[in-house]
Write a structure and sequence with these properties.
Number of helices: 26
Pfam families: LRR_5 (PF13306), NACHT (PF05729)
Keywords: ATP-binding, Nucleotide-binding, Signal
Number of domains: 5
GO molecular function, one term: ATP binding
Radius of gyration: 55 Å
Protein name: NACHT domain-containing protein
Number of strands: 65
Helix content: 25-40%
CATH topology of the largest domain: Leucine-rich repeat, LRR (right-handed beta-alpha superhelix)
Largest sheet: 24 strands, parallel
């Protein structure tokens, strides 16, 4: 070991230490990892080696170093200074090398030179610190750009720091080289000692400062870098999340747009063309060219069951209802077969697609923009999904699977579910009548509740809506499609498509053959037009029309023409292609029958090819497919290829099924069982109508089955259609015998002749006859109802029948006749022993006598053209209810109707015997209005509960009501009764007596403990005392002939409402009526005790007008809300309203009140004070924060200030006695209307009343600020 003092000068050692320390700091700043090499003369000297040398020199505990180590240190420094790339050619560096060599030889430098060296070293350290700060700033700048390219910027930072290091190192080396060269030879041993001591001190301090500063900078840099990286990370995450959300939304919108585009393309291809005629399904035409405006009406049912039809012409009227135009969620469009429901549904969807062009008629359903509110319109044909119960599955099968490939469908299903949950969608269900739940639990397919944004538009036949499973609440709107608005417009379009210009000739043909009714159905219309173009003449028979259709279709199988020698049916007589295909026709008809009446209802319209093979051979199926009578469609399957088969149209299937029945009478057993299990199935098809035209004998038998198994109001229209069809097919009239027991006529378009013919057929069978016609009358011959021996119920409205006689209908139980067109024979009801209910309204009947109808229970006669015999009701012991209105009856006597419970007689042409009601012990309700009855006495009607008598022609005995212990309600108006006494009617609850010809005993109401409501108007009653009627709640007395005892109301603790008008009562005191809520006293005949209202804590409304009351004080009536006092005879205490915290409205007119103060009535909203006798305190309205309306007229108030009434909206002040403060209206921000007239106000300022709309200032004593 060589001590530093013996080997090398301390000055040189200090210099070496400082040099190494600076080198370590620079290298460490360049590369914190310590792994970046510095290339020198081809050898790698790492930053770690330089740091090790620095540590060895600085931290030597004994300040000693070995010779070999010291030599290595010099070699290292010398190698650095001789670097070939940077310092080899630098003269200063080479001088430094020379000086190092001198150090090896122990040369010295002076103390001054050493001091200068240390100073230079300190400056170098400062520069190094500045470099560190600069690097930190640059690092922060570069870190901000890491979110773009962290790696690139990190590399840039390294290059930047390397450059700075090289520059500083060069600078430092040059300084050291110059100093070493200048002072190497002048150092002495003493100088080395002194410098060594000073150097040790400076070095340790410098080391400490540098280390502390380095640590501080390093920690701050690390912290700033960490914070920035974290911030950048959070922002990056947020940006990525936002980008993901935006991308998801964008993807969703793109997917929806793609789906809508595919859907519209699908609809355009599938729906834009329709067949012109069922004769030629492949002969289609653009829907827009042959589409005719539909006749659609909204069906509205009133609370009374009457249906009103309102025509509609826009989509908006279908989709929306009410002023709010809220979109309906469940809409039904009903219509008979062939009326164009499916075509309308297709046109609706095409209009949503914007594919619909100009229609022939531009006046209806042109608001296609209404449909654009829906994101999707989804059309599903229910007949194609009879085995499905879920709407979404139907959409998948009929739409998704048609517009997406196998690999896309799963994603499409998910997207469909999302759209139906979030977006407004229109789901069109076509043909609900052709779908039925296999489990029998649903009336319509399931639409999940989560699809609350979806509107469901359903088409169906009317019979389907009679299903009990369809509740009224499930139908937001009901519409009916009645065909086309203008049939001839459609005829013209069809003829034009055929290239024909023969519309006038066609119209003449339709008129001659009475085919106009068939033209309302687009299907039948197109068939008739097509037949016309082909030269075929039709007779109006449905069988003829469908025979032509089937005959034309069989032409496709074979064009060989042959005719029937003896046709099986009249309508087959002129066919050309059926005779040689008859066996095929029979087989197809059999298949139609078994499908239609299959026990498995889902197979009635669409069956699989496998199931069809049970009915048809392959040859027969081939013929059926070739003719087009049956169609076949492939099914989506991943195993075997399958298909479904159906008839070209349901009505064609029904016609062929009827052909099979007509040829096979045994099939009626199958039909009868079918209808027994499916009671409403009759209205699903036209089989019965076709059968009437094909085989009337089987139709007659069929009608018996129908009548015995079905109980519905819709059968008559079906029978009428069948009857007309039988006539059109030239069936023998004597052979037509359709059986029907229930006749319900409510169809506007019923065929009167057919109805009457069917009724005549069933004289021995008819049990019910109901005719309700509102738009027209049906003419009934006088004898049409003669001999209906089984008839039990008859209701006629909208009929004309002169001389009606029902006396031969011995089993009648209910008769209801309404209308001026009905006239009755006097003995029209003679002998009707079973009759229980009779109602006549506006009919004509002279001398009516019902005395032979012994079982009558209810009679209701209305109309001034009905006259009754005096004994018309004699002997009607079962009669319970009698109502007569405006009838004519002289000397009516009902005393023999012992079971009468309700009597209601109205009209001045009814006169009664004095004892007309004697002995009616069961009578409970008795009403006379306008009748004439002298000396009426009801005292024997012990069970009477309600009596209502009105009319000047009624006079009562004084004891007319004696002993009526059950009487609860008594109303007399305009009657004559002297000395009436009701004290024995202990259960009376309501009394209402009106009329100046009624006089009462003073104690007439004594002991009526149950009385709750008491009204007297115009009657005469002296000394009235009601104090014993403890349960009275309402009293209304009107008339100057009524005088009251002062204590008339004492003890009426339940009394809530008291109204006295023009009565007389001296010293009235109400203080004991603690529950009074409303008091209304008007008139000069009543004087009040000063404390008359003390303690009325429940009083809410108080009105006095014209009364005399001195020193009135209402301060104890804490719940008062309304006070209205009018009259000069009323004087008030100054504190009369103190503490009335609930008071909202106060009106005083003509009263006297000095020093009125209302400041304690905090809830006042309306004040109206009028009269010179009212003077107000200056702060009378202080703190009335709820006050909205203030009216003062002719009052006296000095220095009025309203600025604390912040909610005032209307102020109307009039009178010279009122003076206002200049700032009286300050802060009234809600004030809208201000009227001042003749008030005194100096310097008025309204600038803070920002909401003022009306200002009306009058009077020369009002002055305003310039900026008021």
């Amino acid at each position: 070991m060589t001590h530093l003092a013996n080997g090398i000068d301390l000055v040189h050692l200090a210099f070496a230490r400082q040099f190494v320390t600076i080198l370590r700091t620079i290298i460490g700043s360049m590369d914190p990892r310590g792994k970046t090499p510095v290339l020198s003369n081809g050898r790698a000297i790492t930053g770690k080696l330089a740091r090790d040398i620095g540590k060895a020199v600085r931290h030597s505990p004994s300040c000693e170093v070995t010779d070999s180590d010291l030599n290595d240190y010099f070699n290292t420094l010398e190698t650095l200074l001789n670097d070939s790339k940077t310092l080899a050619n630098d003269s200063n560096a080479q001088d430094a090398v020379s000086k190092l060599n001198l150090l090896r030889k122990e040369s010295t430098i002076s103390l001054a030179e050493m001091s200068q060296l240390l100073k230079d070293a300190h400056e170098a350290l400062g520069k190094a610190e500045n470099v560190t700060k600069e690097c930190k700033s640059q690092m922060e700048s570069y870190i901000e750009q890491l979110k773009i390219k962290l790696d690139e910027h990190a590399e840039t930072l390294i290059k930047k720091y390397t450059k700075n290091f090289t520059e500083e190192a060069n600078m430092f080396s040059e300084v050291r080289k110059a100093n070493i060269t200048e002072h190497a030879n002048t150092c002495t041993v003493e100088s080395k000692r002194l410098i060594n001591e000073h150097a040790n001190t400076c070095t340790e301090e410098s080391k400490r400062n540098i280390l502390e500063h380095a640590l501080t900078c390093t920690e701050e840099s690390k912290r700033n870098l960490t914070e920035h990286v974290n911030t950048l990370s959070q922002k990056s995450i947020q940006y990525i999340q936002g980008a993901n959300s935006s991308k998801q939304e964008s993807d969703y919108e793109h997917e929806v747009e793609d789906f809508v585009g595919r859907l519209k393309h699908h609809y355009k291809r599938k729906l834009s063309h329709v067949s012109i005629s069922t004769l030629l399904p492949s002969g289609d035409e653009s829907l827009n060219k042959i589409y005719a405006a539909p006749a659609i009406c909204r069906v509205v049912e009133s609370s009374g069951g009457k249906k009103t039809e309102i025509p509609i012409t826009t989509y908006k009227e279908i989709l929306c209802t009410g002023e709010s135009e809220k979109i309906n969620k469940c809409i039904f469009l009903q219509g008979e077969a062939g009326m164009g429901k499916s075509t309308f549904a297709s046109k609706l969807v095409l209009d949503w697609c914007n594919q619909g062009g100009e229609l022939t008629s531009s006046e209806t359903f042109v608001d296609a923009n209404t449909l654009q509110e829906f994101k999707l319109a989804l059309l599903i044909t229910l007949r194609d999904s009879v085995c499905e119960r879920d709407v979404t599955n139907m959409i998948k099968e009929q739409i998704i699977d048609m517009v997406y490939t196998d690999t896309e469908r799963n994603d499409a299903y998910v997207m469909l579910n999302k759209i139906m949950r979030q977006e407004l969608c229109l789901v069109v269900q076509d043909g609900l009548d052709e779908w039925k739940d296999l489990q029998g639990k649903l009336a319509q397919p399931i639409m999940l509740s989560c699809y609350s944004q979806c509107t469901v538009f359903t088409t169906t036949r009317p019979w389907k809506l009679t299903d009990e499973l369809i509740k009224n609440s499930q139908i937001d709107s009901l519409f009916e499609l009645k065909g086309v608005r203008d049939p001839y417009e459609l005829c013209k379009s069809l003829l034009d498509s055929f290239g024909c210009n023969t519309l006038k000739e066609f119209e003449q043909y339709v008129s001659e053959n009475e085919l106009h009714a068939l033209l309302l159905s687009p299907m039948l219309l197109s068939l008739i037009v097509s037949s016309w173009v082909d030269g075929t003449r039709l007779t109006g028979s449905r069988c003829d029309i469908y025979t032509v259709l089937v005959d034309a279709l069989f032409k496709k199988a074979s064009e060989k023409i042959s005719f029937f020698v003896q046709p099986p049916f009249v309508c087959f007589q002129n066919t050309r292609y059926l005779q040689h295909n008859f066996e095929h026709l029979q087989a197809i008809a059999k298949a139609a029958f078994f499908m239609l009446f299959s026990a498995e209802r889902e197979q009635s319209l669409v069956i699989s090819d496998r199931q069809l093979s049970h009915c048809l051979t392959q040859e027969q199926k081939y013929i059926a497919l070739k003719t087009g009578i049956i169609t076949e469609r492939k099914c989506v399957s991943r195993t075997y290829q399958t298909s479904t088969c159906s008839f070209i149209h349901k009505s064609v299937q029904e016609f062929l099924a009827a052909v099979h029945i007509a040829e096979n009478s045994a099939t009626l057993l199958v039909v009868s069982r079918f209808f027994a299990e499916n009671l409403n199935a009759m209205f699903e098809n036209q089989v019965f109508i076709f059968l009437c035209g094909l085989n009337i004998f089987l139709a007659n038998e069929f009608s018996r089955i129908i009548d015995s198994t079905m109980n519905t109001k819709f059968l008559l229209s079906l029978y009428i259609a069948g009857f007309i069809e039988a006539q059109a097919n030239v069936q023998n009239p004597n052979d037509i015998d359709l059986k029907l027991s229930r006749f319900n006529v409510f169809d506007f378009d019923v065929d009167d002749n057919a109805f009457l013919r069917i009724l005549q057929m069933n004289k021995s069978n008819a049990k019910l006859l109901e005719i309700y016609l509102y738009s027209r009358n049906i003419l009934l011959p006088p004898n049409v109802l003669h001999g209906l021996a089984q008839l039990k119920d008859i209701k006629l409205e909208g009929c004309e029948c002169k001389g009606l006689d029902l006396s031969s209908c011995h089993n009648l139980e209910i008769i209801d006749l309404c209308g001026e067109g009905i006239t009755l024979q006097p003995n029209a009801f003679n002998g009707l022993a079973q009759l229980k209910t009779l109602t006549l309204s506006e009919c004509v009947c002279k001398g009516l006598d019902l005395s032979s109808c012994h079982n009558l229970e209810i009679i209701d006669l209305n109309g001034n053209r009905i006259t009754l015999q005096p004994n018309a009701f004699n002997g009607l012991a079962q009669l319970k209810t009698l109502t007569l209105s405006e009838c004519v009856c002289k000397g009516l006597d009902l005393s023999s109707c012992h079971n009468l419970e309700i009597i209601d007689l109205n009209g001045n042409r009814i006169t009664l015997q004095p004892n007309a009601f004697n002995g009616l012990a069961q009578l409970k309700t008795f009403t006379l209005s306008g009748c004439e009855c002298k000396g009426l006495d009801l005292s024997s009607c012990n069970n009477l509960e309600i009596i209502y008598l009105r009319g000047e022609g009624i006079t009562l005995q004084p004891n007319a009501f004696n002993g009526l212990a059950q009487l609860k309600t008594l109303t007399l108006s305009g009657c004559v009764c002297k000395g009436l006494d009701l004290s024995s009617c202990h259960n009376l609850e309501i009394i209402d007596l009106n009329g100046n010809r009624i006089t009462l005993q003073p104690n007439a109401f004594n002991g009526l403990a149950q009385l709750k409501t008491f009204t007297l108007s115009g009657c005469e009653c002296k000394g009235l005392d009601l104090s014993t009627c403890h349960n009275l709640e309402i009293i209304y007395l009107h008339g100057n002939r009524i005088t009251l005892q002062p204590n008339a109301f004492n003890g009426l603790a339940q009394l809530k409402t008291l109204t006295l008008f023009r009565c007389e009562c001296k010293g009235l005191d109400l203080s004991s009526c603690h529950n009074l809520e409303i008091i209304d006293l008007c008139g000069e005949g009543i004087t009040l005790q000063p404390n008359a209202f003390n303690g009325l804590a429940q009083l809410k409304t108080f009105t006095l007008s014209g009364y005399e009351c001195k020193g009135l004080d209402l301060s104890s009536c804490h719940n008062l809300e309304i006070i209205d006092l009018c009259g000069e005879g009323i004087t008030l205490q100054p504190n009369a309203f103190n503490g009335l915290a609930q008071l909202k409205t106060l009106t005083l007119s003509g009263c006297v009140c000095k020093g009125l103060d209302l400041s304690s009535c905090h809830n006042l909203e309306i004040i109206d004070l009028c009269g010179e006798g009212i003077t107000l305190q200056t702060n009378a309205f202080k703190r009335l924060a709820q006050l909205k309306t203030l009216t003062l007229s002719a009052c006296v108030c000095k220095g009025l200030d309203l600025s604390s009434c912040h909610n005032l909206e209307i102020i109307d002040i009039c009178g010279e006695g009122i003076t206002l403060q200049p700032n009286a209206f300050n802060g009234l921000a809600q004030l809208e209307e201000l009227k001042l007239d003749e008030c005194v106000c100096k310097g008025l300022d309204l600038s803070l009343c920002h909401n003022l709309e009306i200002i009306d200032l009058r009077g020369k004593r009002i002055t305003l600020q310039p900026n008021a």
